[in-house]
Specification:
heterodimer, A: alpha+beta, Butyryl-Coa Dehydrogenase, subunit A, domain 1, Butyryl-CoA Dehydrogenase, subunit A, domain 2, Butyryl-CoA Dehydrogenase, subunit A, domain 3, 4-stranded mixed β-sheet, 4-stranded antiparallel β-sheet, B: alpha/beta, Rossmann fold, 13 strands, 28% helix, globular
Chain lengths: 388, 266
C-alpha cells in the first residue's frame, strides 16, 4: 500500500492552495454579502487550467484525473463553498457528463471550451416535481425530423443563468419510464426558446447562482443527444457518481477549515485564566473533528484512486458525499460552539461556513438518496431490491 | 536570445522553528520548496521572453533553469518547467556536498559552459535560506559578463540590457552590453502560478537531465572551498527602540527631547 500522492499532484495542491488563498479567499465574504458569482475568479481559474482539472489534455483539460479534481475541491472548500459550487457544478456534472458519455465530436465541440474555461457548464435535471425522484421529470423532447423540440422547466440549476452549455434531461418516451424513456441533450443556452426564470435567494452558497431554466420549443439537433437515446438516466447516474467523490472533497476542505479556525481560536481565547484549548470540553471537540477529518480524507482519496484506476466506485462515491457532508456539518457546528458568540457573528467566516455547509447534505442527491444508493449496492448481491 | 536562470531549492521555512534559548534551529518538517528569490528570477526571465515573442516558444527565445543541489532539487526544476521554462538541468554529485560560494559559482559556470553560454543570466538577489546574495554577481565575474544587481525593472534588446536597480535610497537606470548577468529584487517580480497542465507535463512528459562531476569541466582547485565554517550561532537580539523609565512627567520630557533631536517633532 502506498498512500502518498504523485509528485505532480503535490505540486498541483500547492498551486491550488495559493490560488485559493490569493484569488478566492479575499472575495469569499463579499460575494456572499453581495449575492454575486465571482466571474473574475472563474476567469483566473480558467487561465490556470482549473476549469478542466480532471479531463485529459487532448480535450483541453489539465490531466489531473479525479485525484487532481478532489485536490482542487478540497483546497477551494477550505476557503469558499460558493466558488467550490460554481466550479464543481461546471466540472463535476456538466463537463463530466460530456466527457463520460459524449461522442468525439461532442467532446471537441463542447468539452474543450468547457475544460479551458472559455464556456461555463450547467446540468439540468431537477424539476419542481422531480428532485430525489428524478424519473418523474416532465420536460419533454419530441422528434421533428433531425431535431428534437424541448419543452419544460428546470429548477435549482447551479450556474443555470451563467452557463453557455447545459445538459438537459428530457422525456423522449413517457411509456418507457426512467430506463429507456429519458434522454440527455446538450443545449446551448443561446438557442431560441431557452430562458432564465427566477433566481433562488439562498441561505448559503450565495456566491453561486441557482436558476430556473425554462425551455420553450428549444430545437436541439439530433447530434446533440448525449449518450444513448433513451439512456439519459444512466448518463446522469454515471456523472453524479463521479461528482459525489469530489463533493466529499469539498466538504473535507470545509471541515478542515473549521478545525484550523477552532484550533487557532482555542489557543488564543482565554477564559478562567487559561486558553480554552486546555479545557477538556473544548479539546475533546477538536479531537473528534480531527479524527473524523482523517477518516474522510482517507475515504475521499481512496475513492478518487478507485475512479482513476477504473474500479467500481458507486458505493464509495455515495459514502464520500454522505459522510463528507455530515462530517462537515458536525465540524462546522462544533466550530461555531467553540467560537461562542463570535461564531454566530456575521462578521466572522464561521457563520458563513455554517450557512454554506448545509446545502451539501441536500444537493446532488440528498443524503437520504445516498443511503439508498449505498444500501442498494450492499443488498444487490443477495438479489434484493431496495425500494425507494 | 538565450536566458539561463540559476535556481535553488531550499528547506520550507514554514517547517522550521528557531529557538534562541536553545541556540538551535529545529526542522519540524523536512520539505523543500523552490526558493522565492529563484521564483522571482524565473518570473523576470519569462516576462522578457513573453514580451519579445508574445509567448510563442518557437521564435528563438529560450529560458533554461539550472540548479545545483541534492537530487531532490529535481522538484524545483520541474516547478520551473511548469512555470514556463523551456528546459531544466540538475547538477548534483556527492563531491559537491561541501561547496562554498566560490565552489558553487565554479560548478555553475562549468555547467553554463556546457549548456552553451547564454546572452543573459537572471538570478535571484539572494536565497531565502543562507541569503548571502553573492551567486549572481560572482557568476558575472566568473564568466566575464557585465553584472547588474538588485534589479527592479528589466528590458533587453539585441545587444544590451537595460535595468532599473536600487541605488542607495533611490533607483538608477543602467544599461550594459550583452552578455550580462542580473540579479532581481523579489518584490519587483511576484511570480506567476504555474498552469495546471504544465504541472502534470513537467512530471509526466518532460525530462530534467542530471549532470555530475564527470560531466563538467572542473579542476581540483575549482572544487576546493575557500571558506571554512567554524560555528553557527544567533546574532545578538535586536534592540527595538529605547526604553524610558521613571515618573511620568520626567519620562514625557525625555521623550519630547529625544523626538525633537530626531527632528520628528518641532
Amino acid at each position: 500500500m502506498d498512500f502518498s500522492f504523485p509528485k505532480e499532484h503535490e505540486l498541483f495542491r500547492r498551486m491550488a492552495r495559493e490560488f485559493a488563498e490569493t484569488e478566492v479567499k479575499p472575495r469569499a465574504k463579499a460575494i456572499d454579502r453581495e449575492h454575486r458569482v465571482p466571474h473574475e475568479t472563474v476567469k483566473a481559474a480558467a487561465r490556470l487550467g482549473l476549469m478542466g482539472v480532471p479531463f485529459p489534455q487532448k480535450y483541453g483539460g489539465m490531466g489531473g484525473g479525479e485525484t487532481g479534481y478532489c485536490i482542487l475541491m478540497e483546497e477551494l472548500g477550505r476557503v469558499c463553498t460558493s466558488t467550490t459550487t460554481v466550479i464543481g457544478a461546471h466540472i463535476g456534472i456538466a463537463a463530466m457528463s460530456i466527457y463520460l458519455d459524449g461522442t468525439e465530436e461532442q467532446k471537441m465541440k463542447y468539452l474543450v471550451p468547457l475544460a479551458q474555461g472559455r464556456a461555463i457548464g450547467a446540468f439540468g435535471l431537477t424539476e419542481a416535481q422531480a428532485g430525489s425522484d428524478a424519473a418523474a421529470i416532465k420536460t419533454t423532447a419530441v422528434r421533428d425530423g433531425n431535431e428534437f423540440v424541448l419543452n419544460g422547466a428546470k429548477v435549482f440549476i447551479t450556474n443555470g443563468d451563467i452557463a453557455d452549455t447545459i445538459v438537459i434531461m428530457a422525456v423522449t418516451d413517457p411509456a418507457l419510464g426512467a430506463y429507456g424513456g429519458i434522454t440527455a441533450f446538450i443545449v446551448e443556452t443561446e438557442w431560441p426558446g431557452f430562458s432564465i426564470g427566477s433566481l433562488e435567494n439562498k441561505m448559503g452558497i450565495r456566491g453561486s447562482s441557482t436558476a430556473e431554466c425554462v425551455l420553450q420549443d428549444v430545437r436541439v439537433p439530433q447530434e446533440n443527444i448525449l449518450g444513448q437515446f433513451g439512456a439519459g438516466f444512466l448518463t446522469f447516474m454515471k456523472s453524479l457518481d463521479v461528482g459525489r467523490a469530489s463533493l466529499g472533497a469539498g466538504c473535507l476542505g470545509g471541515a478542515w477549515a473549521a478545525l484550523e479556525a477552532s484550533m487557532q481560536w482555542a489557543r488564543a481565547r482565554e477564559q478562567f485564566g487559561v486558553p480554552i484549548a486546555t479545557k477538556q470540553s473544548i479539546y475533546f471537540m477538536i479531537a473528534d473533528m480531527a479524527a473524523e477529518i482523517e477518516a474522510l480524507r482517507s475515504l475521499v482519496y481512496r475513492t478518487a484512486w478507485m475512479i482513476d484506476t477504473g474500479q467500481p466506485h458507486i458505493l464509495e462515491a455515495a459514502a464520500c458525499k454522505l459522510f463528507g457532508s455530515e462530517v462537515a456539518h458536525r465540524c462546522i457546528d462544533k466550530a461555531v460552539q467553540i467560537h461562542g458568540a463570535l461564531g454566530y457573528s456575521r462578521d466572522y467566516e464561521i457563520e458563513r461556513g455554517w450557512r454554506d455547509q448545509r446545502i451539501t447534505e441536500i444537493y446532488e442527491g440528498t443524503n437520504e438518496i445516498q443511503r439508498i444508493v449505498i444500501a442498494a449496492n450492499l443488498f444487490r448481491p443477495y438479489g434484493m431490491r431496495i425500494p425507494t | 536570445m538565450k536566458i539561463i536562470v540559476p535556481i535553488k531549492q531550499i528547506l520550507d521555512p514554514s517547517g522550521i522553528t528557531f529557538r534562541r534559548d536553545k541556540e538551535r534551529m529545529f526542522i519540524n518538517r523536512e520539505e523543500y520548496i523552490l526558493d522565492p528569490g529563484s521564483k522571482a528570477a524565473l518570473e523576470a526571465a519569462l516576462r522578457l521572453k513573453e514580451q519579445a515573442d508574445g509567448g510563442a516558444s518557437e521564435s528563438g527565445w529560450s529560458v533554461v533553469a539550472l540548479a545545483l543541489g541534492e537530487p531532490h532539487a529535481d522538484d524545483a526544476l520541474r516547478e520551473a518547467l511548469a512555470m514556463g521554462c523551456d528546459a531544466a538541468y540538475l547538477v548534483t554529485d556527492p563531491a559537491f556536498k561541501d561547496a562554498d560560494i566560490s565552489v558553487t559559482v565554479q560548478i555553475l559556470a562549468a555547467a553554463i559552459d556546457k549548456l552553451g553560454r547564454p546572452d543573459l543570466i537572471v538570478a535571484g538577489r539572494e536565497s531565502g535560506d543562507t541569503g548571502a546574495g553573492q551567486v549572481g554577481a560572482r557568476l558575472a565575474e566568473a564568466l566575464d559578463y557585465a553584472g547588474i544587481t538588485d534589479v527592479y525593472a528589466l528590458a533587453v534588446d539585441r545587444s544590451s540590457v537595460r535595468a532599473t536597480r536600487r541605488w542607495g535610497t533611490g533607483y538608477a537606470a543602467v544599461r550594459a552590453p550583452l552578455p550580462a548577468a542580473v540579479t532581481v529584487a523579489p518584490e519587483a517580480f511576484p511570480p506567476r502560478l504555474p498552469h495546471g497542465a504544465r504541472i502534470m507535463s513537467a512530471y509526466r512528459e518532460w525530462d530534467v537531465p542530471v549532470w555530475g562531476l564527470e560531466d563538467l569541466d572542473l579542476t581540483e582547485a575549482d572544487l576546493s572551498p575557500r571558506l571554512a565554517l567554524r560555528r553557527e550561532g544567533f546574532p545578538p537580539p535586536l534592540e527595538t527602540g529605547e526604553v524610558y523609565r521613571g515618573d511620568p512627567d520626567s519620562v514625557a520630557q525625555e521623550l519630547v527631547i529625544a523626538l525633537r533631536l530626531q527632528k520628528l517633532i518641532s
